[in-house]
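Board notes (copied after class):
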Amino acid sequence: MGNFMAFISDNSLFKENIGIFITMVIYMCLVVGIGVYFYKRSQKNSENYFLGGRTLGPWVAAMSAEASDMSGWLLMGLPGVAYWCGLADAFWTAIGLAIGTYVNWLIVAKRLRNYSQVAGNSITIPDFFSNRYKEDKKIILGIASVFILIFFTVYASSCFVTVGKLFNTLFGIDYHVMLIIGAIFVVAYTLLGGFLAESVSDFMQAIVMITALVIMVCVGLVKADGIGNVIENAKAIPGFFSLNEIANPVVVDGVQQGTTFPLFGEAKSYSVLNVVSMLAWGLGYFGVPQVLLRFMAIRKPSEIKSSRRIATVWVIISLGVAVFIGIVGRELMPISGDLNTASKAENILIVLSTEYLPVVVAGIIMAGILAATISSSDSYLLIASSAVSKNIYQGIIKKGKETNEKTIMWISRIVLIVIALVGIVIAWNEESVIFKLVSFAWAGFGATFGPIMLFSLFWKRTTRAGAIAGMVTGGVSVFIWKLVLNPFIGGIFAIYELLPAFILSSVAIVIASLATKKPSEDIEKEFELAKAGIDESEIVVAE
């Protein structure tokens, strides 16, 4: 305590923003209160802990799905990209995500809600795939669980980066110290409340996130003397306000040059290949477990239509405003020591909020960034821990034998801690870019699970061999494309790894399925049952 008080007295930045700090503490107490409220209910059994007993209403399902998906990436990553290099990258990414959101809710949600219950009352994504193909040897279960562990550890690290940057920028607290404290808080909160707590808190974060973005862009436009000035400033920077060019900051050792005004070189061409690459972000939605689990947890299939409308409207508004905040930021903060690298540019919302908003409002926005990040990371940790405790331990090691619920819960807790530690290691580099970390994990999930999810739901001829081939091909292709083909060959191989990996996975599924014996009669019967969209009360859970 003495060291903390000494830090406060010696830190002028902390004293300057003490009102924001107090607001954030109050807000986070509210988030913890949600976890406490749902503690007893979540600890009842693993289904309640991991899936909330399939009780999510349309508003909570829709907005928690989007908030858990977007989190700090929406509030920091996307505005940072727009601020750093202009409209093109951020705009086409946002368009791809908006389309992906709508299509995913339209074609996947209801079928997966029904199918997951028909197929052995599955409560995790690996469970669903394994039950869908009636595995005896749990190979699909194991492969899916391993990929979930890998990519969610990267996802969690991006959230820890957000916490570190937030507190370092606001209060001057060491990035690495806050990285560790944030991870500890996330683990504690996840242990406390489970799926219901993080879904309800994500619902609250969704409201705060969209409110924060709208308030900031409105205030920013007023401070910039109108949208006309913002657009004129953006047009004056080569390629900054273009959809077929991209701005080129002049940097030395990663730091943008300039004194009063930032220096930009000649605009770079933004080709059709670049556009397709960014639009491919939308494909990721078909494979991200945090969204797919909300589909499985919806209270009634009949409420999905309402959820789709809510989610789509929220995403379109939030993404659009987030991109524009980066554009407004270049007018209000043309160059700043807090924003002069690609990594620091992701602080634009923080810098604008503390500069132009009243303390309480800025505090709520900062708390919203923190809480959205924490509630999202606990979603990632929860799903990753379920992959080990429910899928690997109970499904593979115990091979479906009756397992003590307390043992499953304890294994889950241990895994949470291990994943958090690895996430800290990945996030340790202070120059980590949230956008890049998220893009890799997003591609991993989209290519590993997206194609097989679509084929499992809509192609009856898909076989277990096809599922295995598709997941392995998709997951491995992301690594090869990102780490080998893109950096060492370039050209057409510079495309975002999600698109080629998604295509290769789909091809592998078709070839392997057609080359193997067609599915059994029981599998085909369950497929037709899910396709029929029968009422929930009529669903007979398969043994």
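Comment from the instructor: The first strand starts at residue 245 and ends at 246. The domain at 54-434 is CATH 1.20.1730.10 (Sodium/glucose cotransporter).
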